[in-house]
Amino acid sequence: MVEEKIAVVVDSTAYLPQEAIRKYDIRVVPLSVIIDGKSYKEEVDLLTDDFYAKIKESKDFPTSSQPAPGDFVQVFEELKKEGFDTVISVHLTSGISGTFQNAVSAGEMVEGLNVFAVDSGLACMAQGSLALKAASLAEQGKSADEILAYLEKMKQNMDAYFMVDDLNNLQRGGRLTGTQAMIGSLLQIKPILHFEDKHIVLFEKVRTQKKALKRIEEILDQAVQNGEAEQAYVIHGNVPARGEAWLKELAEKFPTVEFHLSYFGPVIGTHLGEGALGLTWSIK
What we know:
The protein is α/β, with parallel strands linked by helices. It folds into two domains: 6-31 and 66-156, Rossmann fold, CATH 3.40.50; 159-282, Hypothetical Protein Tm841, Chain: A,domain 3 (2-Layer Sandwich), CATH 3.30.1180.10. Helix content is 43%, strand content 25%. Strands 10-9-8-13-11-12 form a six-stranded mixed beta sheet, sandwiched between helices. A four-stranded parallel beta sheet has the order 2-1-6-7, with helices on both faces. α3 (69-81) packs across α4 (99-109) and α5 packs antiparallel against α6 (144-156).
């Protein structure tokens, strides 16, 4: 029996560490952000630090766009030429982007290659941890069926919560009215968002950042007790010191959980804004 040669593909909103991309030879298909009428492929034409500096000076609110099916076709064709016969392509939730659907369409266009597109239902390192697990299992010689089954198990034991610091981005993105944003800012309201049925929805409104982070910790505590949180990522929107401080606190409170630091890159940062903090966890 010939062993499958499996490649892993992600879109750029997984925000995987560069060392992981190199280690597993993961291919990344970028989404784009549009700032003042100019389009930039995130992490290719525009690095995260530069993005947050640029939006402070921009006249218009930045927007984002998904890769075209042709962008995926190009990557899949390259992998086929390199001798891969199977691709597991892990993507940003279909509830907020057409990226997953474009990967599915592209997979159908490339003959002689089995493409399995995975809708993470989430974003950032929640999506990224699925891709890393897929790559690790592929390296161990697991079949595509075994990998896909494991990813489904991980998704069932995975959650993510975000605290938004600046309400203006939610207002500009159409998730809050101008009045709600103004009142929320005056009252120091920090909305906690999470994923529900693949969409980002409001979980709770909490006053002050400290109380919002405490509330997220309570949810994590429950997940740890249920055996659903063995690894976790603290995710920050251009506030690394704040992210590291929270990670240190969490690591002391939850010694059984393996914590890592990640970030909101340009596309997700467009929607959540600078100063956002998030926490995602799953089984290992």
